[in-house]
Design a protein that fits this description.
The complex is a heterodimer. Helix content of chain A is about 40%, strand content about 20%. Chain A has a six-stranded mixed sheet with strand order 1-2-6-3-5-4, with helices on both faces. The longest helix of chain A is centred in the first third of the chain and has 18 residues. Chain A is globular, with a radius of gyration of 24 Å. In chain B, the strands form two sheets. A six-stranded mixed sheet of chain B has the order 1-2-6-3-5-4, sandwiched between helices. Chain B has a five-stranded mixed sheet with strand order 7-11-8-10-9, sandwiched between helices. In chain B, helix 1 packs across helix 4, helix 3 packs parallel to helix 8 and helix 9 crosses helix 15. The chains are: A alpha+beta, B alpha+beta. The interface between A and B is large, with 72 and 81 residues.
Chain lengths: ~425, ~425
């Protein structure tokens, strides 16, 4: 065969074998704080993460959790914000903080040779922050400005509003900060949240990378000595209350594109259908070759991108469809979304497409497990639910075994246009 | 340290192989030596539009993404003013699929009318999403033509205007492909748990028979030295004023590049940088401020962006910036401060070698600039920079007459 004949035939493929991810090694510090070690990778570096149950779900006032997390590095008993930043930068490290709905995290990335110089800073930041008034004020003003800029972006407005439409604005997952709320953030408010959810609260340490020698001993010195009490999580979960219209339109004049967000509340990772529904979502809007992308971007050219996803929270889940589309084709794009939903609900997926999605998802999973930080992300995705890494082997089995009938039945159960919130932000041209 | 082997095929395609046995994933990166600087000034945005068309089907593969997804792979691409770069990752047992896909579109693109029509729309939406329907999104549309008077860096990768994209014809597409998408104008890198002895025959088999259809001969005008400060002011529907400043700097290959990069870090990279500490924290004149460089192949830019704090004017903000800059131009910096930014660069480099895809890209870019082996010399070049070098670069680059300033004012409501 000549090369030109060879080019006509795709090379043979080998499928991905079932893989078992190693469970992290678990240790307990003297005060009972659990440490998980994920020892992998080729570079002499590591990441030490402190994971707290201190996300916005637990706060008593909007922005409280966010700014508590944000201002941990703004000054401690021994260091001011400048010397914290100087030390971190001097040793070429990164100190990142993140605050989500359920969890809040402090992460230290560093070369192993500098770790001993950096752990004392992490210790101060995690146990002895002082939330100096002046610094807090500067940070809050800065964020308020950023918020104003973001509110000019249709996609941000849509994302910002969406959770409150799904859960109701009085639900801990539906809270929504407005410009004025920034005025109510004070040092005292953050201090209070810090004492409740960080200091003395139970947290988890995850170390990934080429785990440095004697790490447990070192962590014990800095994080294993202070007393820990059990977290107070007894609060009753308020019911989801979405009063009013499911269709919401937020006008923004002069915009060239509209942001679309559709979706509903759904189960989380603990539900028996969750993994299977991930497959349904992938087919529908979860990868470049998905139904939504193929139709609305690649065939119609209405958008640069459109996708769907399922976000698992500790006490609920969110299914969403998101895009920014040309303002004059907003309605057309919406129509196509519903056509694609209807197809998912009524037609069986062709065998060829299903096998493609299965291979794609298995490959994609393999990528998501590549490297120490990636493994740590996977672990952080399951341990808050009381699950372990075996969850992912099961996920690969689910992908392998799911049938076209199951997919259609799941679409009928969970892709329901009538129960979806429909949010459009943009110029009113519909 | 990234170990690699390099060989060149008969048609001029350069192939680089890096072995990393720690991962089941293999990365393939193909860099084409063509970017927005190669465009006709009346047909801008074309290199980027063409990047999209490379996914619209080749002679034997109607949709590029489908077989790749079937092989468990994923891909993406980006275009800059200098290059167009395509990359993919997939499980290593399916590596031949990557060779098949990439060689087919280098060998013969399908030139589908439908793909051109759809991608003109998609890219127009991208233009709107990233440059028009976005607060401050048009900054580089405004700034570039002010900074570059003759060099084609005077337009952004997305193009000067949407009409240039919607007017693109199939004839343009064919000509561009013929001129730039040739083996002797590309660099192929494979990185993962692979042996050179298995990659070489695959490269020969799939890429070896591809002919060059043309030659990439560049005639890019040299930007004359700026001799007078330039100033631009616009008013837009944004909530907060912003300031942008650009200074011309050397090219990526120049020996002063590393000192210039460190200079920008000292100025405005991160919370311990001079501008952040003095102007955000101390004087509370700014809510945010950053400095960075555009490490382009031709003479690039050192850029500063900032947003004044509430109630502070752009004029006083500008004065404060110039004050900080003057310090850097007149006083030798302390060794410790320089060591800080060097350490940061060192760790950034180590972190950028964590996965096979990043390593593949690093190798491809180094090879394009000069030699793939340079990836392993970068750290040393940064360490060798002395306080005197920083002072010299600051004096030479951060001159008033070398600067262009944009006041981006919020429309009063």
């Amino acid at each position: 065969m000549t090369i030109n004949d060879l080019r006509k035939i795709a090379p043979g493929l080998k499928s991905i074998e079932r893989i078992e991810l190693p469970e992290p090694e678990k240790y307990l510090l003297d005060n009972g704080i659990p440490v998980f070690l994920i020892d992998a990778g080729t570079q002499e570096l590591s990441r030490v993460e402190l994971v707290y149950e201190a996300g916005s779900f637990h706060q008593s006032q909007v922005l409280q959790a966010f700014f508590t997390n944000k201002c941990l590095t703004e000054g401690t008993e021994s260091f001011n914000s400048k010397s914290i930043a100087e030390t971190i930068d001097y040793y070429g490290a990164y100190l990142k903080k993140s605050n989500e709905k359920d969890l809040a995290t402090i992460s230290l990335y560093s070369l192993n040779k500098h770790l001993d110089k950096l752990l004392p800073v992490l210790h101060e930041v995690a146990l002895k922050p002082t939330f100096p008034e002046g610094e807090v004020e500067t940070i809050v003003k800065k964020q308020q400005q950023e918020f104003l800029v973001n509110m000019d972006k249709v996609s941000f407005v849509a994302r910002h509003k969406f959770s409150s439409l799904i859960f109701g604005k009085n639900h801990p997952y539906g809270q929504m900060a407005l410009e004025g709320d920034y005025e109510n953030v004070s040092s005292g408010l953050l201090r209070k949240y810090f004492e409740e959810r960080y200091l003395g609260a139970k947290f988890t340490i995850v170390v990934s990378g080429k785990v440095p020698e004697k790490i447990i001993e070192k962590l014990n010195r800095y994080f294993g000595k202070h007393p820990i009490k059990q977290n107070q999580n007894s609060q009753e979960l308020p019911a989801i209350s979405t009063i009013g219209q499911k269709n919401q339109f937020i006008a923004k004049d002069g915009t060239l594109q509209s942001a679309l967000r559709l979706g509903n509340s759904i189960f989380n990772k603990l539900h028996p259908d969750y993994q299977k529904f991930k497959v349904v979502n992938t087919i529908f809007g979860g990868y470049f070759g998905s139904r939504l992308m193929t139709n609305i971007r690649e065939d119609k050219g209405y958008t640069y991108g459109i996708g769907s996803g399922i976000a698992s929270l500790r006490h609920a889940g969110i299914f969403f469809i998101a895009s920014e589309v040309g303002a004059d084709v907003t309605q057309k794009a919406l129509d196509e979304v519903f056509i694609e939903i209807e197809k998912m609900r009524t037609e069986l997926i062709p065998e060829e497409e299903l096998s493609l999605v299965k291979n794609y998802m298995a490959g994609s999973f393999l990528r998501s497990a590549d490297g120490p930080f990636a493994l740590a992300e996977l672990f952080k995705g399951v341990f808050p639910y009381g699950l372990n890494m075996e969850y992912y082997s099961r996920f690969l089995d689910t992908i392998k075994n799911i049938t076209a009938e199951e997919i259609r039945n799941l679409a009928v159960s969970y892709l329901q246009p009538d129960s979806m919130v429909r949010l459009i932000v943009g110029e009113n041209r519909i | 340290m990234i170990n690699f082997e390099k060989f060149t095929l008969g048609n001029g395609l350069r192939v680089i192989v890096h072995q990393d046995a720690s991962t089941p994933i293999v990365a393939m990166n193909i860099l084409y030596d063509v970017g927005a600087r190669d465009e006709d000034p009346d047909k801008t945005g074309f290199a980027h539009l063409f990047e999209h068309l490379m996914f619209g089907g080749s002679e034997n593969i109607p949709k590029y993404d489908v077989p790749l997804e079937r092989a468990g792979g994923e891909n993406n691409a980006f275009t800059s003013n200098d290059v167009t770069n395509f990359y993919l990752t997939l499980p290593k047992q399916n590596i031949e699929t990557a060779f098949w896909l990439e060689s087919d579109r280098m060998n013969q693109l399908a030139f589908s009318e439908k793909s051109l029509e759809v991608q003109r729309n998609v890219v127009s939406e991208e233009f709107r999403q990233t440059h028009l329907n976005q607060p401050y999104g048009d900054v580089w549309l405004l700034m570039r033509p002010e900074v570059y008077k003759v060099h084609p860096y005077s337009w952004p990768t997305i193009g000067k205007k949407i009409e240039h994209i919607t007017n693109a014809t199939m004839e343009d597409v064919r000509a561009f492909y013929g001129k730039y998408y040739n083996p002797n104008n590309a660099i192929l890198v494979v990185s993962g748990d692979v042996e050179v002895s298995e990659i070489k025959p695959l490269a020969e088999k799939w890429f070896g028979p591809i002919d060059n259809h043309g030659e990439n001969i560049r005639k890019i005008p040299v930007e004359p030295i700026q001799t007078k400060a330039r100033f631009l002011e616009v008013e837009r529907d944004v909530p907060i004023d912003a300031i942008y400043k650009c200074w011309h700097m050397c090219s990526r290959a120049d020996e002063k590049y590393h000192a210039t990069d460190l200079l920008s870090d000292l100025l405005g990279n991160g919370q311990s940088s001079r501008l952040y500490y003095q102007l955000v924290k101390n004087k509370k004149l700014f809510s945010e401020i950053n400095a960075f460089i555009m490490g382009s192949r031709d003479e690039g830019l050192l850029v500063l962006t900032g947003k004044p704090a509430h109630g502070k004017s752009l004029e006083e903000a500008d004065v404060a910036i110039n004050l900080e800059i003057e310090k850097l131009r007149t006083t030798l910096i302390a060794k410790d401060e320089l060591q800080k930014v060097k350490n940061k660069v060192e760790s950034t480099l180590v972190f950028s070698e964590m996965n096979v895809l990043d390593k593949a890209m690093n190798l491809a870019f180094a090879e394009l600039n000069d030699d793939a082996g340079d990836v392993n010399l970068e750290a040393g070049k940064y360490q060798a920079v002395k306080p005197e070098d920083i002072l010299a670069v600051a004096k030479n680059v951060l001159k008033l007459e070398n600067c262009t300033t944009l006041f981006y004012k919020a429309k009063k409501k």
